[in-house]
């Protein structure tokens, strides 16, 4: 089963192509910044990124965990929280290491689900975007863009923090009405690594003893 990485409970649920100019409701400053971001990521054939997900409750208590994601067009592989997820654009395999079980499902884009690969493409979706100004962290300046979803979703709004000097996305912050905040920060990113399409598919031969539950068969 595909993980919903950003939900109000606090645990972690693609395309590179920017399909057009952002909606008119987005302000000019936000649009200009996101166009630069789009141009950068469109130039990459693949991305490998390590990330940290931090969940902070309304009371201020926080927990963090790390993972790695590989992306190639609509394909991705994710290693996080004791699971590996493979997506070849058609199917999704979720491998639970502790249970020695893998579940195969049809790949479906879910409006309410945000996974770590979305940090690099989330701005393509249906939001009203507004520039909130710069913020400085650890001596670096980041442009902050608030993204309010036009459709009904489980969260209130998102914020993107974008490195002003490189146009790279540094973090995606998700805000919920109950006060929970989930931040995914990019620790490192390596573009244009050679990745075969088979890298994004489950290989049963490399995982002997793992049972498979196939939910694609009716």
Structural overview:
This protein has 218 residues and is mainly beta. The protein has one domain (28-207): outer membrane lipoprotein receptor (LolB), chain A. The chain contains one helix and twelve strands, in the order αββββββββββββ. The protein has one helix at residues 28-42, and strands at 47-56, 62-72, 75-80, 83-87, 91-96, 101-106, 127-137, 140-149, 157-163, 169-175, 181-191, 211-214. It has a twelve-stranded mixed sheet, with helices on one face. A hairpin with a 2-residue loop joins β2 (62-72) and β3 (75-80).
Order of helices and strands: HEEEEEEEEEEEE
Q: CATH topology, which one?
A: outer membrane lipoprotein receptor (LolB), chain A
**CATH homologous superfamily identity:** Lipoprotein localisation LolA/LolB/LppX
> Level of helix content?
under 10%
Any chance you could write out the topology, listing elements then pairs?
Blueprint: H1 28-42, E1 47-56, E2 62-72, E3 75-80, E4 83-87, E5 91-96, E6 101-106, E7 127-137, E8 140-149, E9 157-163, E10 169-175, E11 181-191, E12 211-214
